[in-house]
Design a protein that fits this description.
Radius of gyration: 27 Å
Number of helices: 34
Structural class: alpha/beta
CATH class of the largest domain: Alpha Beta
CATH superfamily of the largest domain: Glycogen Phosphorylase B
Strand content: 5-15%
Number of domains: 2
Bound molecules: N-(phenylcarbonyl)-beta-D-glucopyranosylamine
Length: 799
């Protein structure tokens, strides 16, 4: 089959693009230039750009079909793709054509571009990583498909009312999504509940999963891969026909409405387990639909099940899709008639698992009772996998009952629960952490028993970020400067070339241009004085990330300013961005206090021009792309041993921000590469932090012995910030689970070094350039290369 034949090539001249735009406006949007709204123009532009990618997709599919390669299948409950228009314009080479054509037809390109809505189908780092990896897979011509859920409502929209976070639903696709291709023919039926009888599992409820595709173009290559997102659809069986014919219409569709709830909403918990049955249903829904699709694709060209692992590697993005392991066992044993051992061998060669956390509370477990009710056959399979696992543990470590208890897939106390991480480790050939330190800590702590038994299963793949999105698209000015400095734009596909910027750090003319770009980005953010140091902390709110530590520093600066306005260091703007899970009270209190402190500082004339705190609401990928280019200082201040990797740290360093950070996650590797002299290090390391946590940590002793710390906390306790934040201060004094007070002095001292460094702008710029120059390692292309080498073993197919 040659899908390359018969395709009319789409034009790349301005006239052809304009013609296509016009034709799409008439024939596909069904309107005219005279009556078209900006929304019509936007949707039409999207179709016109999408068509160019679709043509490349057809050529990619043909080449991939011809070569019958090993496919990388990425299973993820979350994708934070970011805005699509800018990226698809760039990747289709129409960035200049599009605005010109829009103008020629009488539309305002800026107004049209502003209508692009980012699909917020993820919470934070895990979802954004998935998007960066797919970008790199396509750019590197690797046959890959991402599978996920098409949530009707994405991550909630955050606003502030009286400084407190308020959540509103994110109905991102209410206008329809012009980037999406619905594929209703590829529906799959998914069962839930019911019982296991002699004839096998008889589900008590069935629903359909209906896919749609989003194209994932590679940069600088023809390849276009795709993501397949599933939405739940009621089947005919969900409509109660007897009620319908009795005229009880609302009751008749009740069950159908409930069935479609499965893909209704993204759970807004980041790194915290929530344990609701609907979420378990979502997970199985994703897994069941995706595996059926993978098998259908396998069967297209192959016949022998033994070939399956050679044709498919399935990466589990954390434990959310781990039910894929018992589900593939069920399909192979119950539906395909393979024997258990054969099936287990296939499963064990097919799946790999990435762990994204070190927080014990983020390790998913499901009540045995709930799982057994929802998926009775899967629970049986999990028990049988557990028998095999515990048999191996007993024979390797005879008499070690405690080890058996720890490694079991079933936790017994206080309630019987299935441990999804243990299942993921047991059913895969590779388990990876996402930064060197994280991978080490996983084998030393979380998975110590498993790493003892199966040392070869564990590896590291340090995260990375897409230089296309987070440098080229986010920061076009700096990108041009980099290209002119290096004399090539090849760095966009080989980020190690950034090393060529290092000598330019010594060139004062280049430094001046670099500073100009930073100031331009700051001016574009519109935060006032672009001469002020822009100090940025952008990430989800979590106590382990320690936004509260940054806040104590701000209060300290404020106190210093009040006591001696003449002696203040350098003008600073501190910018926060991020959401808190709606049920995470402590994180929401920290948000409230930040806004209260920002208001107090803004209202006090003594701070004017010296200190500002800003907190734009609803931090998302769109906003990240505006903030990151402008940042001077990158706050990466988690308690050491808690942040698995971080990826914002990489994006900021690549854009020339200098990090102030602990030795946590990928900060360690950033510092190794950019050099200790270009990084502001502070605080306890992971060993020191664990030791202090394990002893009888007394936060109050730091409060008692440090007058500036005491003054900061006392001010909060006394209600100096509109009476807000008493709970935050009290919890720091009483418990301080994440050692904020222990690291306070070291942090404030490091911030004083930051201020001193800023006063020498030539030095600062050198440091900034060296951060970018030495961060080429943090491209997600390198991450994908590492996955290919250490886990996936797939090879490129070029269309
Ligand atoms: C979300 C849900 C469950 C477990 C982990 C997460 C998550 O987002 N983890 C984050 O993943 C990022 C990508 O690997 C890391 O950079 C972050 O450190 C980690 O918190």
């Amino acid at each position: 089959m040659d899908l390359r034949n018969g395709l009319r090539p789409l034009g790349s001249t301005p006239a052809e693009f304009e013609q296509d735009l016009l034709s799409n406006l008439y024939y596909r949007r069904g309107t005219t230039v005279e009556s078209a709204s900006a929304q019509d123009a936007y949707e039409t532009l999207a179709l016109t750009v999408r068509d160019r990618l679709a043509a490349r997709r057809a050529r990619t599919a043909a080449a991939q079909y011809d070569s019958n390669p090993r496919w990388v299948y990425y299973l993820s409950a979350e994708y934070l793709l970011g805005p699509q228009l800018d990226q698809n314009l760039l990747y289709s080479g129409t960035t200049d054509l599009a605005p010109a054509a829009l103008k020629a037809l009488g539309f305002d390109p800026a107004e049209v571009a502003a209508l692009d809505v980012e699909p917020g189908l993820g919470n934070g780092g895990l979802g954004r990583l998935a998007a960066c990896l797919l970008d790199s897979l396509a750019t590197m011509d690797i046959p890959a498909v991402g599978y996920g859920i098409r949530y009707d409502l994405g991550i909630f929209k955050q606003s502030f009312e009286n400084g407190e976070q308020v959540e509103k639903p994110d109905d991102w696709a209410f206008q329809g999504d012009p980037w999406e291709f619905p594929a209703p023919d590829d529906r799959n039926r998914v069962g839930f509940y019911g019982h296991v009888g002699p004839e096998g599992w008889v589900p008590g409820e069935v629903i359909d999963g209906e896919p749609s595709h989003l194209l994932v173009p590679g940069y600088g290559t023809e390849t276009v891969n795709f993501i397949r997102l599933w939405r739940a659809r009621a089947t005919e069986a969900s409509f109660d026909l007897s009620r319908f014919s009795a005229g009880q219409y609302a009751e008749a569709v009740d069950q159908a409405v409930r069935a479609e709830n499965i893909s209704k909403v993204l759970y807004p918990d980041d790194s915290t387990e929530s344990g609701r049955e609907l979420r378990l249903k979502q997970q199985y829904f994703l897994v069941s639909c995706s595996l059926r699709d993978i098998i259908r694709r396998f069967r297209f060209r192959n016949h022998d099940w033994a070939e399956f692992p050679a044709k498919a590697v399935i990466q589990l993005n954390d434990t959310h899709p781990t039910l894929a392991i018992p589900e593939l066992m069920r399909l192979l044993v119950d539906e395909e008639g393979l024997d258990w051992d054969q099936a287990w061998s296939i499963v064990r060669q097919t799946f790999a698992y990435t762990c994204h956390t070190l927080l014990p509370e983020a390790l998913e477990t499901w009540p045995v009772a709930m799982l057994g009710r929802l998926l009775p056959r899967h629970l049986e399979i999990i028990y049988r996998i557990n028998d095999g696992l515990l048999g191996e543990v007993r024979s390797r470590f005879p008499g070690d009952l405690d080890r058996v208890r720890r490694m079991s897939l079933i936790q017994e106390e206080p309630e019987r629960r299935v441990r999804m991480a243990n299942l993921a480790v047991t059913g895969t050939f590779a388990v990876n952490g996402v930064a060197e330190l994280h991978s080490q800590l996983l084998t030393a702590t979380t998975f110590h028993d498993f790493a003892t038994m199966w040392p070869d299963r564990f590896r590291n793949v340090t995260n990375g970020v897409s230089p296309r999105r987070f440098v080229r698209l986010a920061n076009p000015g700096l990108s041009s400067l980099i290209t002119s400095g290096l004399g090539t734009d090849a760095w966009l596909r080989d980020l190690s070339l950034l090393a060529g910027l290092a000598p330019l750090a010594g060139d004062s003319a280049f430094r001046a241009q670099w500073r100009t770009e930073k100031r331009r980005a700051k001016a574009a953010l519109g935060l006032g004085d672009p001469g002020a140091l822009l100090d940025v902390m952008i990430k989800r709110f979590h106590e382990y990330k320690r936004q509260q530590l940054k806040l104590l520093h701000i209060i300290t600066l404020y106190h210093r300013l009040k006591s001696d306005p003449g002696r203040f260091g350098v003008p600073r703007t501190v910018l926060f961005g991020g959401k808190a899970a709606p049920a995470y009270t402590a994180a929401k209190s920290i948000i409230h206090l930040i806004n209260a402190v920002a208001a107090t500082i803004a209202a006090d004339p003594v701070t004017s021009g010296q200190l500002r705190v800003v907190f734009p609401p609803n931090y998302n990928v769109t906003l990240a792309e505006k903030i990151i280019p402008a940042a001077d200082l990158s706050e990466q201040i988690s308690m050491a041993g808690k942040e698995a990797s971080g990826t914002g740290n990489m994006k900021l360093a690549l854009n020339g921000a200098i990090t102030i950070g602990t030795l946590d996650g990928a900060n360690v590797e950033i510092r190794d590469r950019v050099g200790g002299e270009n990084f502001f290090l502070f605080g306890l390391d992971a060993t020191g932090a664990a030791a202090l946590r394990g002893s009888s940590y007394q936060p109050r002793s730091y409060y008692d012995s440090d007058p500036e710390l005491k003054a900061a906390l006392d001010a909060v306790l006394a209600g100096a910030f509109g009476g807000v934040g008493h709970d935050v201060a009290q919890s720091l004094l009483d418990r301080d689970e994440y050692l904020t007070l222990a690291d306070y002095r070291s942090y404030v001292d490091a911030q004083d070094e930051v201020s001193a460094a800023w006063q020498d702008q030539e030095r600062w710029t050198r440091m900034s350039i060296l951060n970018a120059a030495n961060s080429g390692f943090f491209s997600s292309d390198r991450t994908v290369a590492d996955y290919l080498d250490r886990i996936w073993r797939a090879t490129p197919v070029r269309p």
